[in-house]
């Protein structure tokens, strides 16, 4: 592989990491709004695991994204129940939060990419 191919692959990997990092920033803001500064700081540090080229780092990020998706669904249920009990409209909030949860869940699949599989040693038997 030439130097140009390696540079192109690295740039592509950075673009693939964008939804992953964005999810961690969004959930950190969510926890910061609830007043848990330590959790926000921890969540903002999680994408640094992507710098470690090991399959456990990739699986850790995937697990965290799954847990974050679940948290968004729990938050959706809480907000919808709260709005229904107050008689407020709830459909728009539900659609937005389910969309955020889906985006987070689908971000787990960035590691299907061939270059990221090679980077983290995934898919080896």
UniProtKB/TrEMBL annotation:
<keyword id="KW-0472">Membrane</keyword>
<keyword id="KW-1133">Transmembrane helix</keyword>
<feature type="transmembrane region" description="Helical">
    <location>
        <begin position="37"/>
        <end position="56"/>
    </location>
</feature>
<protein>
    <recommendedName>
        <fullName>DUF2069 domain-containing protein</fullName>
    </recommendedName>
</protein>
<feature type="transmembrane region" description="Helical">
    <location>
        <begin position="12"/>
        <end position="31"/>
    </location>
</feature>
<feature type="transmembrane region" description="Helical">
    <location>
        <begin position="63"/>
        <end position="81"/>
    </location>
</feature>
<feature type="transmembrane region" description="Helical">
    <location>
        <begin position="93"/>
        <end position="112"/>
    </location>
</feature>
<keyword id="KW-0812">Transmembrane</keyword>
């Amino acid at each position: 592989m030439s130097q140009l191919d390696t540079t192109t692959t690295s740039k592509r990997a950075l673009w693939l990491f964008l939804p992953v990092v964005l999810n961690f920033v969004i959930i950190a803001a969510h926890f910061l709004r609830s007043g848990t500064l330590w959790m926000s700081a921890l969540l903002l540090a999680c994408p640094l695991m992507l710098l470690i080229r090991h399959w456990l780092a990739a699986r850790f990020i995937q697990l965290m994204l799954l847990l974050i998706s679940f948290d968004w669904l729990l938050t959706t249920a809480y907000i919808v129940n709260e709005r229904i009990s107050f008689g407020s409209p709830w459909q728009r909030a539900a659609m937005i939060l389910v969309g955020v949860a889906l985006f987070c869940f689908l971000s787990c699949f960035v590691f299907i990419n061939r270059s990221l599989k090679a980077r983290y040693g995934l898919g080896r038997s």
